[in-house]
Amino acid sequence: MPGIYLGLLLISLAGLAHIDNRQRLVFSKAGRPRFKFEWQQLIVTALAVAVFSLWDTLGIALGIFFEGQQNFLIGINLFGNYPVEEAFFLTLFVYCAQLTLAAWMRVSAKAQAEEAGAK
């Protein structure tokens, strides 16, 4: 079934965006109106995806990385053997890292505030 992998990646990205919007972690910050987009975070995300894409492209060209099963991919390659799904996977990877960091920072700030209040 071509496209199943891309579809699952898009569903996963939509789920992360829902969590992000609800918890206001990365692309919509606490204290700001919902859906007020954080452009700085988009730039950070794009740069990280670009760096990982360059890394993957070099790895594919050097034979270190290989292309996955063709029956799950839509068959469109961006550069050489770099499938379009890889860009969505890297976006998902970077977004997960950003959400994890933002959640960790919020929890640790809350713990520090509670600790300071207990003293």
Kindly describe this structure:
- The protein is mostly helical and 119 residues long.
- It has one domain.
- Helices cover 66% and strands 4% of the residues.
- The chain is built from 3 helices and 2 strands.
- It has helices at residues 4-23, 39-61, 84-118; strands at residues 77-79, 82-83.
- It has a two-stranded antiparallel ribbon.
- Helix 1 (4-23) packs parallel to helix 3 and helix 2 (39-61) packs across helix 3 (84-118).
- The longest helix has 35 residues, at 84-118.
- The chain starts with a helix and ends with a helix.
Number of domains: 1
Gap from first CA to last CA: 60 Å
On the 0-100 scale, what is the average pLDDT? 87
Q: What summary fits the major beta sheet?
A: 2 strands, antiparallel
Percentage of helical residues?
55-70%
Question: Tell me, what's the shape?
Answer: elongated
Question: Which H/E pattern describes the elements?
Answer: HHEEH
Low-confidence stretches: none
Give me the secondary-structure category: mainly alpha
